[in-house]
Amino acid sequence: MNQPASLPLAESLLAAPLPAGGPAWLDAARREHRAAFAAGGLPDTRIEAWKYTALRGLAQRRFADGDAAAAARGVDVAAFALPGVEGPRLVFVNGVFRADLSALEALPAGVSLQPLSQALRGDAEPLRFALSRPALVGHGREAGDAFAQINAARAADGVVLRVAAHAKSIAPVRLVFVGAAADAELAWHARNVIELGEGAELDLVEQHVSLGEQAQLATLVSDIELGDHARLRHVVVQDAAAGANLIRRSGLRLHARAQATLHVLELGGALVRHDLRAELVGDGAQFHTRGVFMPHGRQHIDTQLAIRHQALDTTSSSHWRGVAGDRARGVFRGAIVVAPGADGSDANLSNKNLLLSPAAEIDTKPELEIYADEVKAAHGATVGQLDERSLFYLRSRGIPLGEARALLTAAFCRAMLDDLPNAVLREHLSGLLIAQLPA
Amino acid sequence: MNDTMINEGSTATALRDNAGVAEALGRSYSAGFVTQIEMTGLPPGLDEGTIRALSAVKREPEWMTEWRLEAYRHWLTMPKPDWAKLNIDPIDYQAISYYAAPKKQPKSLDEVDPALLETYEKLGVPLHERAALAGVAVDAVFDSVSVGTTFRKQLADAGVLFCSMSEAIREYPELVQKYLGSVVPTGDNFFAALNSAVFSDGSFVFIPKGVRCPMELSTYFRINAQNTGQFERTLIVAEEGAHVSYLEGCTAPKRDENQLHAAVVELVALEGAQIKYSTVQNWYPGDENGVGGIYNFVTKRGDCRGDDSKISWTQVETGSAITWKYPSVVLRGDRSVGEFYSVALTHHFQQADTGTKMIHLGKFTKSKIVSKGISAGRSSNSYRGLVKMEKGAEGARNYTQCDSLLIGKQCGAHTFPYMEVKNPTAIVEHEATTSKISDEQMFYCRSRGIGEEDAVSMIVDGFCKQVFRELPMEFAVEAKKLLEVSLEGAVG
Amino acid sequence: MLKIENLHARVEGKEILKGLSLTVNAGEVHAIMGPNGAGKSTLGNVLSGREGYEVTAGTVTYNGIDLLALEPEARAAAGVFLAFQYPVEIPGVNNTYFLRAALNAQRKRRGEKELDSMQFLKLVREKLKVMQISDELLHRAVNEGFSGGEKKRNEIFQMAVLEPQLAILDETDSGLDIDALKQVAQGVNTLRSPDRAFLMITHYQRLLDYVVPDFVHVLAGGRIVESGDKSLALKLEQHGYAGIGESRPAGAVA
C-alpha cells in the first residue's frame, strides 16, 4: 500500500505541466506514466524494497519543477574536475544540458554521444522503445517504482550514448550531473540511454556533484544495454552536497559474454537511493560491482542491488562496504536470483560494514533466490568493528590507537578500489574516501 | 472400533503395478494412518458462540473466556497475511472445526482408550509407563485434547509441573495468568491471535527456581479428525537457575484436504535458566502431486528475561505442505544466549518458509543460528531471519550460517536474512551458501559400492550433522531416519 | 633491562602464568622453551600489552619503568617489539606505508624527527639488503597472501627497521623449512648487539642451533622451572620435557 498522491511531495511533482512538443508517442507515454504515479503514490516502508527507507520527511516537502535559468547558471568546471579522467564529457546543470561546459570534440570513431534533448529533436524513433517504459530492467511496474514513473513522465534531458559494434572508446566518457542552488528548491530529472554494440568497449565515469547546500530532489534513470561480447567499465562517484536527495535507478542488460564492471562510491547527499539492477540474459555474461557507501552526519544512503542470472554460465561478483558514522544510516540489499535453467551460474556477494557511532545504523539484507541446481552461490554480510587483532598489530608496532583505526578504516574502504585500473583516478578516489572519515 | 487401520487408498493401484515402488510409497509417510475412535466436538464454524462453547467444554474460568474473546475480536480486525514466497489457497476459517476430542475422557492414563494407546505405540511413543521411553515424560495431544501425561509423579516429586494446558488453567491459574501471552501477545500476528482465541490444549511446564528437570519432557501432537484445525498452546517457564529440555513431535493422517495447524509456543527463562526446545515436525506433507497436507503456521518465541539465561531452539522440519515458523528469542537479560539450529527438508510440492529472529536488547548477549535447507522435487525452501541489535546491545554478538542443498532442477532454495544494527560495539556475521550434491561425491560413494539413495542420505546426513548434534540422542536417530524416508524418490 | 617478578596472568578467567620471574640484561639472548600450554605465548602477549590478558599479580619493569602500565603503542615506542607467532593479514594497508607510519609514530613519541619518504626509503633499502629480502615484499599489503615463511621474514624485517631494544620472538621458527629458518636466524644474528636483548620463545631446539642463546629457561605450568646455558636446550632435545624442574626449586632466576 502506498502513501496517497495527496502528500506535498507527490502533489508538487504532479503540479507542473509535462514537457511537451516531443513525438506524439512520447507525449502519450509521459501522460501514462504520470497517471501511474498519481494512482500509485509514493512508496512507504510496508513495501519490502523501501522497508528501511522512509520517505516521511521528504514526502512533506515541495519542490519546484525544473530550472528555467539552468542555462545561465555560473558553474566553474573546477567543481567537477576529476584527476586521471580526460576526454569527452557531457555536463548537465539541474538536469539541463550545458554545451558550454561539455566537451564533445574528442569522440572516438563509432561513439555517438549527445544530450537526450537534442536526440529528441532529430530522429527520435530509435529511442521509442526505451522511452516508452519507465526503465529497461524490471520495467518499472513493481510496487514502489514511483520515482521511475515520475522520471519517465518528466525527464526532458539526459544522455544518449551509443558505441557501435566493435568500436572502442579509448579515453573514458564522462557524464557529469551538477545540482546547482537556485531561487527555489528544485526537482529535476534525467534519463540516460546507453547502448554498447556487439564487441564494443566503453569506459564510463558518472559524477554527481553540487554547487551550494540547497535542498533538491533529483531522479535519474539509466538504461545500459551491452551487446554480445561488449565490455563496460563504469565508475560512479556520488559526492553531492548535504541538501541533495538523489534517487537513481540503473538497469543493465548483458547479452552473451558481455562484461560490465562497476565501481560505485556513495559519499554525499541527504537521502540517497540507488536501485542497481542487472539482468544477465546471455550465456557467459559477467557482472562485477564494487561499492562503498559512507553516510555520516544525518545522511541516509540506500543501495538496492539486484542481479538476475538468466542464462548459462553467467558470473556475478559483488563486494560492497559500508561505513556509517554520526547519526547516519546505511542500507544495503544485495539480491541474487538464479532463474530456472541458468546452470553454471556463479554468484558471490559480500557486504561488510563498520558502525562508527552509537547513533548510526546499518541495515543489510543479502538475499539468494536459487531455482537451478548447477550453481555456485554464496553471500556473506557483517556488521561490526575493526578487527581487534589488526588493531593490536598496528599498536604493537607503535601506531597510536586513533591513527590505527583511521588507517584500517581507510584500508577497509579502499580495498573496493583495488582493481580499478586507472591509478590516478584510484588515488583521487582514495583521497575522497579518507576525507569522508571522521578526524 | 477395535483397531486402527492403515489408509491404503493411495497405494492400492500402485501395488498392482509395481510392488517395489508401492513399498517405497507406503513407507514414505508411515504416520499416515487414521485412528477409528468415537469422537466428540464442535461443528465447523467460528464466532463468539464457538469460543464460549469451547471454553465451556473445557470448564474454563471466566477470565480465560474473556481472554479468548478479546483475542478473537482483535483477530477479526487483522488483515490476512500475504507472503510473496508462499502459494496458499485461501483458508476458509468457517469450514474448520475448532474442537475435536475422543468421546471418552480418561481420568488417568489407565483409563485411556486402548485404540489411542495403540496409536501412540505405532508412532513410536508408548504411553504405558512400563513401556515408556526411558527418561522421557510424554504429554500426548490427540486432536484438540491431551490424552495423558506420563511420569507425573516423578516430576511432581522434583517440583516440576508438567501437564496439559487445560489442566494448568484449572489447577494453576495464577501461573497461567502471569505468563500466558507475556511472550507472544494475543495480537502478535494473525495466527497467534487466532490461536489465542481458539486454542484447545497443549502442554504446560513450570520448573521452579534452582531445579534441573530430572528427565526430558516431551509432547506428542497428533491430528486425527477430519476438517479439524489444531491450535495448541505451549507454555514453558523456567525460574531462576532452572534447566529443562523439551521435545515435541507431530504427525497427522494422509488426507486430501489441507488441515490447519496454528500453534503458539511461549518460553520464559528467568535469571540463569536454560530451556532447550527440540522439535521433530512430521505433519503430513501432502502427496507427490501436492494434494493435501498440513498448513503449519506456528508462532514460537522465547524470552530470555533474566540475566545469563539461555534458550535454544532445535528443529527438524520434514512434514507439512506449508510451514511458516520462526522460533525466536528476545535476548533481554544481560549475557543471555539464544540459539537456533534448523534442518528443513522439502520435497514434492512442499513449501517451507522458516528461520528465526534474534532480538538483542541486553548487554553482551549472544546468538547463533545454523540453518540447513534441503530442497528436492518441486518444493520451495526459504530461510528468513532477522538479527536485530538494539541500542543497548553493548558488545552483543551474532553468528549466522545458512546452507542450502538442492536436489534436482525444479526446486528452489532461498535465503533472506535481515540484519539491523544500532549498536557500534555489536558484531553480526552472516554467511550463506547454496550447493548441490556433486556428481563427484555421488560417483565416489557409488564406486565404493554405496547405492544412490544411500549415498544421498549419507551426504544429506553429513550436511545436517551440525544440527543433529544438538538433538537428544533418540531424536537424532529418528530425525536421520525421517530425512531418509522423506527423500525417497528424490534422485534418479 | 627487563625484570619480571612473580608474574601471574589470566586468559578468559584461566590462570596461565603462575609466578614467573625472569631478568634480561642488554646484549643477552634468552631462550624460553617449554611444552605446549606452558604459557610461552601468553608471556609474549602480556609483555606487548595484548587485550584479554589479565595480569593478576607481579611486576614487569623495563628500563626502570612499569611496562604493564603502558599502552601497546607506548611499549613499542619504548623499544619493545613482538614478532608474532601468527602475524595478522591486513588487506588494503601497504607494507611500506604501514612501516613508515609505525616508525614515525614511534619517533614522534620519543621526540625524534620523523623521516620523510626519501629518508625512509633509503633506510628500508639498506635493511632489505642486510636482511636479504626482495623489495617486492614492500609493495604488497601487510602480510596479505604471504606464505608462512614470508610472514616470519617480514616480522624480522620490521624488527630491523624499527630497531627495538627488546625483541620478543614468539615461535618465530614454527612452520619454517630449514632454508627459511636459516634466513630468519641470520636476520636475528645480524641484529644482535650489546644494547639489544632478545627473548626467543620456542618449542624446539633447532632455532638455537643457528641463534645461540646466552641463557635457556624452561617454562612449565606457568613458571620458569629450570634455567641454564645452551646445553639445557640439548638436554631437553634428548630427554623431552618430562621430569624437568622436579629436582630444582621453581621460580629460578637467571
Provide an overview of this structure.
Chain A is 19% helix and 38% strand. Chain A has helices spanning 8-15, 24-40, 56-59, 116-121, 128-131, 146-154, 388-396, 401-414, 423-436; strands spanning 64-65, 89-93, 96-97, 111-115, 159-163, 173-180, 186-196, 201-211, 216-226, 231-238, 244-254, 259-266, 271-280, 286-293, 300-309, 315-324, 329-338, 345-355, 361-370, 375-384. In chain B, helix 4 (62-76) packs antiparallel against helix 9 (190-198) and helix 10 (439-447) crosses helix 11. Chain B has a domain at 31-325. Chain C contains eight helices and twelve strands. Chain C has a six-stranded mixed beta sheet with strand order 6-9-10-3-11-12, sandwiched between helices. Chain C starts with a strand and ends in a 15-residue tail after the last helix. Classes of the chains: A alpha/beta (439), B alpha/beta (492), C alpha/beta (254). The A-B interface holds A 48, 52, 340-341, 353, 355-358, 360-385 and B 84, 389, 391, 404, 406-436.
Tally of domains of chain C: 1
How many helix segments of chain C?
A: 8
Annotation field: number of helices of chain B: 12
* CATH architecture identity of chain C: 3-Layer(aba) Sandwich
Oligomer: heterotrimer
SSE class of chain B? alpha/beta
CATH fold type of chain C = Rossmann fold
Q: From the alpha carbons, calculate the radius of gyration of chain C and give it in angstroms.
A: 18 Å
Short description:
Chain C: InterPro entries: AAA+_ATPase, ABC_transporter-like_ATP-bd, FeS-cluster_ATPase_SufC, P-loop_NTPase. The complex is a heterotrimer of chains A (439), B (492) and C (254). In chain A, 19% of the residues lie in helices and 38% in strands.
Give descriptors for this structure.
heterotrimer; A: 439 residues; alpha/beta; 2 domains; ten-stranded mixed β-sheet; 20 strands; globular; B: 492 residues; six-stranded parallel beta barrel; 25% helix
What is the topology?
The complex is a heterotrimer of chains A (439), B (492) and C (254).
Chain A: H1 8-15, H2 24-40, H3 56-59, E1 64-65, E2 89-93, E3 96-97, E4 111-115, H4 116-121, H5 128-131, H6 146-154, E5 159-163, E6 173-180, E7 186-196, E8 201-211, E9 216-226, E10 231-238, E11 244-254, E12 259-266, E13 271-280, E14 286-293, E15 300-309, E16 315-324, E17 329-338, E18 345-355, E19 361-370, E20 375-384, H7 388-396, H8 401-414, H9 423-436
Chain B: H1 9-17, H2 19-28, E1 39-41, H3 48-57, H4 62-76, E2 100-102, H5 114-122, E3 136-142, E4 145-149, H6 152-158, E5 161-164, H7 165-171, H8 173-179, H9 190-198, E6 203-207, E7 216-222, E8 233-238, E9 243-251, E10 258-261, E11 264-269, E12 274-281, E13 293-304, E14 310-317, E15 322-325, E16 328-331, E17 337-346, E18 351-354, E19 357-360, E20 366-376, E21 380-389, E22 397-407, E23 412-421, E24 427-436, H10 439-447, H11 452-468, H12 473-486
Parallel strand pairs in B: 3-7, 6-8, 7-9, 8-11, 9-12, 10-13, 11-13, 12-14, 13-15, 13-16, 14-17, 15-18, 16-19, 17-20, 18-21, 19-21, 20-22, 21-23, 22-24
Antiparallel strand pairs in B: 1-2, 3-4, 5-6
Chain C: E1 2-11, E2 14-24, E3 29-33, H1 40-48, E4 53-62, E5 65-66, H2 72-77, E6 80-83, E7 90-94, H3 95-109, H4 117-131, E8 141-142, H5 148-162, E9 166-170, H6 178-191, E10 197-202, H7 207-210, E11 215-220, E12 223-228, H8 230-239
Parallel strand pairs in C: 3-10, 3-11, 6-9, 9-10
Antiparallel strand pairs in C: 1-2, 1-4, 4-5, 7-8, 11-12
Family (chain B): Belongs to the iron-sulfur cluster assembly SufBD family.
Domain SUF system FeS cluster assembly SufBD core (chain B): 221-463
InterPro entries (chain B): Fe-S_cluster_assembly_SufBD, SUF_FeS_clus_asmbl_SufB, SUF_FeS_clus_asmbl_SufBD_core, SUF_FeS_clus_asmbl_SufBD_sf, SufBD_N
